[in-house]
Predict the structure.
Amino acid sequence: MIRRLPKLRGFSNLNRQSYQVVNVSDLNHFEAGEEVTPIALFQKKLIRRKDLPVKLLGDGVLEKKLTVKLHKVSATAKEKVQKAGGKILQ
């Protein structure tokens, strides 16, 4: 039966959570002091869907002081936002 249906091999996790990825360098589209939320990212066309969770990754340089309210933030991204004078709220 496996030879007839090779696509059914392996394991797929039903509880897998997929995130939309945003890098720290993308946050430079915002004005200084502005609040970064999934809806604000959607309005600036940095993510495609506003109903999926968003994860901030630490690629790039942040030049502005921002308040970030996203679902997940990597350790390097958190460090770069705080170094620029911003806050992370989860």
User: Anything to note?
Assistant: The longest strand covers residues 20-23.
